[in-house]
Amino acid sequence: MSPLELDKPQCNCGVIGVFNHPQASVMTYYALHALQHRGQEAAGIVASSFDSNKNKQRFATHKGEGLVLDVFSDSTILSDKLKGMSAIGHNRYSTTGSASIANIQPFTINYRYGNLALAHNGNLTNTKILRKTLQDEGAIFQTTTDSELFLHLIARSRKTNQLDQIREALQIARGAYSLVLMTDTSIIAARDPHGFRPLCIGRKKMGDEYAYFVVSETCALDIISAEYVRDVRHNELVVIDRKTIETGEITSYMIDDITPQSCHCIFEYIYFSRPDSKIFGHNVDKVRRKLGKNLALESPVLPGDDGEKVVAIAVPDSGNTATLGFARESEKNEIPTKYEIGLIRSHYVGRTFIAPGQDQREFKVKTKFNVVRGVLEGKKVVMVDDSIVRGTTSRSLVNLVREANPQEVHLRITSPPITHPCQYGMDFPSREELIANDYNGEEEIGKALGVNSLHYLSVESLMASVPQEEGVGYCNACFTGNYPVQIDLGGGKFATEE
Predict the structure, then answer these.
(1) Which residues make beta-bridge pairs with 236?
(2) Catalytic site residue 200?
(3) CB 45, CB 102: distance < 8 Å
């Protein structure tokens, strides 16, 4: 864990694909910048251009550790090295595999059907079985990530058509994947049959033709002024090629013959996605406001005897819109509440900041947050946050707020207690490290965190807060332990529960 890494669920990754744009790598760069919140460990871009000397497509790659701005700090990388009309990109937060250069995506291969590059968001659940089977058959792995499995499965397929090879590989892989692949002639995108992770399609008018984009969130379309077309559906594989440019039609295939009900990751709405994004076809901001609203209905904070308004503050940034919903619903129900900015977050502290001494945890929080004393002093304060994992940061934040001498501090969480690790692409600790498993209920956890009261949003209110559509479901396994896809425990054994 990085010295400054706060106690939050760690996100998966961000993926981008661009087709038919003269500055495909530049568009990918900006889109990656918009998706920086999905992964800060590493970034990479692969661009495809035509090599007239060899009369074939050439793939060029640049990737490295750090933020997008650092990895591509030399602008000539984009203008000279990564030329081409197509490109794919990846922001990495590692959920499998070590943090080594070899594990940075996109991955590329050259096999009998030409060049192939891949960027993957998610986690496979049958990694151990697949890896052992492929190794027994002679496969040599270059990385320690599950993402490389796709390339081996595609390259070793006996199918005589590249698209069929890709589809067969996706049918063998199990778990969570939102994929963008680049071939010599196309961009291919796919979401696993349960659709755990978001992925959408956009386009932008370029003269007489359109450039097409595939991105994890719509905020990546906004930065390049592209219009949202639609989501890649769960259990869908789409092909964007010259036919798409000429006809405007995106070729679509089913991965499995039968499409199950979707299992969208509910944490995408709670925390991961940017509030200005649309994921799974709905606005994140709107859902987060509803989470705050239902939290206020379920566990209001009443004013004290002095009759002064309760001060509602967010733990920035993911708690901002939920706190608005909490404060407005409280006022609507005649509970005097005022939304205030009580915590200021610094956006300029690097991930490598070193906090020497014994009280490192307090310094980590203080380098990231500071209180607005005039807002909090003498007030009854309710802090709204999205989740508690180990509880270390929550405890430090409560201590920080108490330095401003409020009357009381109450904590409200827009998700239920996290009791199980995620198996589909989020980096949660083991069950033993989760604070919800260390104490018996909200009262005990609240005392351990140092607040006057604590309330988590119930599973029922959480499910009532997210969009409801026919055939659409959600994965809430980190709260309930109900894993919708079997998990490979190794040795041919599977589990449906932790």
Answers:
(1) 191, 254
(2) no
(3) no
- Which of 121, 232, 126, 122 minimizes the C-alpha distance to 171? 126
Q: DSSP string spanning 426-458?
A: -B---GGG-GGGTSSSHHHHHHHHT-SEEEEPP
**495 strand-pairing partners:** 487
- What residue ranges of the chain have pLDDT lower than 50? 1-6, 351-355, 357-358, 491-498
Specify the fold of 286-468: Rossmann fold (3.40.50)
**Which run of H or of E encompasses 203?**
strand 200-206
Distances (CA, A) of 403 to 174, 258, 372, 442: 49, 57, 10, 23
d(CA 479, CA 420): 6
Q: Which helix (H) or strand (E) holds 463?
A: helix 459-465
| Alpha helix segments (H runs only) across 144-283 | 148-156, 162-172, 219-223, 242-247, 267
254, containing H or E segment: strand 251-254
With beta carbons less than 8 A apart as the criterion, state whether 308 and 340 touch.
Answer: no
Distance CA 46, CA 28 (A): 9
Residue-wise DSSP of 84-133 = SSEEEEEEE--SSS-S-GGGPSPEEEEETTEEEEEEEES-BSSHHHHHHH
CB 239 within 8 A of CB 186: yes
Of the CATH numbers 3.60.20.10, 3.40.50.880, 3.30.565.10, 3.10.320.10, which one belongs to the domain with range 14-260?
A: 3.60.20.10
Amino acid of residue 372: V
- Structural domain boundaries in the chain: 14-260, 286-468
How do 453-456 and 408-413 pair as beta strands? parallel
Per residue in 282-324, pLDDT tens? 999 999 999 999 999 999 999 988 889 999 999 998 899 999 9
pLDDT in tens, 382-411: 999 999 999 988 999 999 999 999 999 999
Q: List the catalytic residue out of 13, 200, 263, 478.
A: 13
